[in-house]
Amino acid sequence: MANTWGLSTDVPVVGDYDGDGKVDLTVFRPSSGTWYSALSSASYMSTLSGTWGLSTDTPLPRSPQ
Fold first, then answer.
1. b or e along 17-41 (b: 16 or more beta carbons within 10 Å of the residue's beta carbon)?
2. Backbone angles phi, psi at 12, to 5 degrees
3. Model pLDDT, residue 30
4. Rounded distance between C-alpha atoms, residue 64 and residue 7, angstroms
5. How many other C-beta atoms can be found within 10 angstroms of the C-beta atom of residue 60?
6. Cβ contacts of residue 61 below 8 Å, gap of 6+?
7. Roughly how many angstroms between the first and final C-alpha of the chain, as a whole number?
8. Staple 33 to which of 6, 53, 59, 64, CB 3.0 to 4.6 Å?
9. How far is CA 47 from CA 26, 41, 42, 60, in A?
10. Mean pLDDT value of segment 2-23
């Protein structure tokens, strides 16, 4: 089964954003400065989003803690 996540203009960003030690499906949408993340701790069925950044920003991967 295949799913679509994000738009063609989104920038994928690797990181563990929920702290469970697994990579979360995360993209940065430059057009709105919004981040979208599907959380691995919820079997990718729960998502987070938040606006942070500008259209000219380049997202960096989140370092493991």
1. bbeeeeebbbbbbbeeeebbbbbbe
2. -70, 140
3. 87
4. 26
5. 10
6. 13, 14, 15
7. 32
8. 53
9. 9, 10, 9, 20
10. 84
